Amino acid sequence: MIVAERKPIEEIRAMVKDFKKVLTVGCGTCVAVCLAGGEKEVGVLNSELKIARRMEGDPIETGAMTVERQCDMEFLEELDGVVDEYDALISMACGAGIQFLAERFPEIPVFPAVNTSFIGVNREVGWYEEKCRACGTCVLGMTAGICPVTMCAKGLFNGPCGGTNKGSCEINSDQPCAWYKIHERLAKQNRLANILEICPANDWRNQTPRTIVQPGYQERLTALGIK
Amino acid sequence: MKSGSNLEKILRAGHFAFTGELGPPRGSNVEAVREKAKPLVGNVDAVNITDNQTAMVRMSSWAASLIAIEEGLEPNYQMVCRDRNRLAMQADILGASALGIRNMLCLSGDHQQFGDHPQSKGVFDIDSTQLIGTVKKMRDEAKFLGGADIDGPPKLFIGGAANPFAEPHEWRVHRLAKKVAAGVDFVQTQCIFNMERMRTWVKEAVDMGLTEKVYILAGVTPMKSIGMARYMQLKVPGMDVPNEIIKRLQGVDKKKVADEGIKIACEQIEEFKEMKGVAGVHLMAIEWEHKVPEIAERANVLPRPVV
Q1: What is the pLDDT of residues B136-187, one digit of tens each?
Q2: Is the Cβ of B181 closer than 8 Å to some Cβ of chain A?
Q3: Which helix (H) or strand (E) holds A52?
Q4: Nearest 5°: phi and psi at B49?
Q5: I need a labelling partner for B12 at 20 to 30 A (CA). Which of A72, A105, A188, B195 fits?
C-alpha cells in the first residue's frame, strides 16, 4: 500500500491561515490503513485546527468527508455540490488522491495534509516499511524477492558495496544490507548463479509521467474517445 | 597497450606497482594540491585523486588530476556513481581522456548520508560494475552506453575497488569476477589489516584464474595512532581490523606508535611482494602524503622503475 505521514499541524495551519471554512477530505484506502488520513485522522486534524484557531482568536469552520478512494473519480462524485460551501479543501489522501481531487475541483484551493512517503508494508500496527520504488523494471525474480532499488541504500544491481558490514548497511547498523540478504536467500534456494551474471544498467524511464492501459481495455477507451 | 599509462606499462612489464593517494582540498586552493603532490613525485607510479571522498564536497577529481599532471604525477582519476548520471559520467570520461588522464578508478561511492550534504539526492544511475563496463565499451568499441558511436574513444586504464573482508565472504571473489567480466584492468583493495583473510581471498582469485585477467593492488594504510586503529575497527564500514593490530600498537612506547604503524605497513608490503596474485600495493596514507617517501624507502620499493 501507499504509506503516508501526516504533516505537522503548524504546516497545515500555515497553508489554510487565510481561509474561514475548510472541508477536510479523508481517503478510505491506503492512508486509512496506515493511520495517516482516514476518517479518524480527519476528525483529529479538524479538532486540532479548530482549537488552534480559536486560541488565536480567528476561529475556523471545518467540514469532514471521507471517500472510499480519492484516486477514483467515481468516489469523488459524492463531493459534487458539497465543496461549493467551502473556501478550501484539505486532502488527507496520498499525492495521487490529492491531485485527482484538485483536478475534479479546479476552482477551489486544495492543500495536502500528508506527506506521501513510500509504497510499503505493514510490519505491525503503526509500523510500516518501504518495499518498492515503482521503478517499472522489476528484478525481484533475480534477487530472491528482495528489491535492490529500494532496500539497498545505493540501489546497486551487482552485489554489495564495500561498505556492507556483517550483514548491515553502511548507512545504519539497523538497516540490513539488501545484498547480504539476497545472497543468503538465494544460497538457501540454491540459486546463487542468478547474481554471478552482470546485471546491465537499469532503465529508469519511470522518471517521466507514466500511463498504463491494461491489455483488453484499449478498445473500450478508444470507443469512448478518451485514449 | 590499452591506455599507455605509466601504471599500465609498469604492470605489463611485470614490475611490482606502487601507487599513492591524494585527496583534493575543500576549496579551490591549487597550492594545497601542489603541496600534497610534491612528496609523491618519483615515489609512486600513479596517484589516486579521490572524488568527493566520504561524500564531502571537494575540488573535482578531474581538475585536481590535471594539477597533479602539471606537478609530474600520473593521476588515477576516481569517479563515483553517487554524484552523476550516465550522461555526466560519460562526458567527464571523454573530457578526462582528452586532457591526458590515462587511469580511471570506477567506484560506487560512500553514501551521501555521511557527508556534508546529507539532504542531497544520491544518483546511483549505474553501479560501479556497470561503470567499468561503460568505460570499456567506450574505449574498446568506441560506443556510448546508449549505443551511439564515439568520435575519438577515450584511452583509459580501467580500475575498480575490491573488498576482501566484507561479508558474505564467499561473495567477495565473485564480485571481483563480475568486475573482471565487466572489463576492469586493475583493482585496488580496501585497506588491509586482516592478512589471513587477504591471503584466502587472493588464493581464491588465483584459483579462479582471475589474476591472469586483472592486476590486484593490495591496499595498505599505515596506522598513525591507537585512536585511528580503534576508529577504523569500530566505525568504518567494511573495514576489518583484528585486535592483534591494536595490541601491537599498544605494546610500544606512546611516541613510537606512528613508527610502529609504518613498520606494520612495511611488513605487509614485503609480504605482498612475494604473494602470488598480488601485482602491487596501493598506499593510502590518509592525510599523510608527506610520509610516503619514508614509507616507500623503508618498504624497499624505491627507486620506481622507468618504463
Answers
A1: 999 999 999 999 999 999 999 999 999 999 889 999 999 999 999 999 999 9
A2: yes
A3: helix A39-55
A4: -110, 110
A5: B195
For the stretch B217-250, pLDDT in tens is 999 999 999 999 999 999 888 899 999 999 999 9
What distance in Å separates the CA atoms of residue A222 and residue A123, rounded to the nearest whole number? 42
Pick A154's closest partner by Cβ from B111, B182, B238.
B111
Of A170, A195, A200, which is closest to B130 when you measure between CB atoms? A200
Please tell me the distance from the alpha carbon of residue B289 to that of residue B270, in angstroms, as a whole number. 20
C-alpha B244/C-alpha B194 separation (Å) is 9
- Which residues in chain A have Cβ-Cβ distances shorter than 8 Å to B181? 198
For chain A, the residues whose C-beta falls within 8 A of a C-beta of chain B are 153-167, 170-171, 179-180, 183-184, 195-196, 198-202, 204
Residues of A in contact with B162 (CB under 8 A): 162
Of the candidates B43, B272, B306, B8, the residue with the CA atom closest to the CA atom of residue B157: B8
Residue A111: CA count within 13 A, CB half-sphere: 21
Yes or no, beta carbons of B125 and A204 under 8 Å apart: yes
DSSP A164: -
User: pLDDT tens across B109-137, in order?
Assistant: 999 999 999 999 999 999 999 999 999 99
Q: Which domains can be identified in chain A, with CATH numbers?
A: 2-118 (3.40.50.2300), 134-196 (no CATH)
List A18's β-bridge partners, or say none.
Answer: none
Distances (CA, A) of A64 to A70, A84, B305: 14, 14, 80
B118 close to A (CB below 8 A): no
Sign, CA dihedral B274-B276-B278-B280, equals positive
3-state secondary structure of A182: helix
Whether B138 and B152 have beta carbons less than 8 Å apart is answered as no
- C-alpha of B92 from chain center: 19
CA distance B159 to A168: 26
Q: Is the CB of B167 less than 8 angstroms away from the CB of A164?
A: yes
Q: Which residue of A has its CA nearest to B126?
A: A201
Cβ–Cβ of A198/B130 closer than 8 Å?
yes
CATH topology (fold) of B6-299: TIM Barrel (3.20.20)
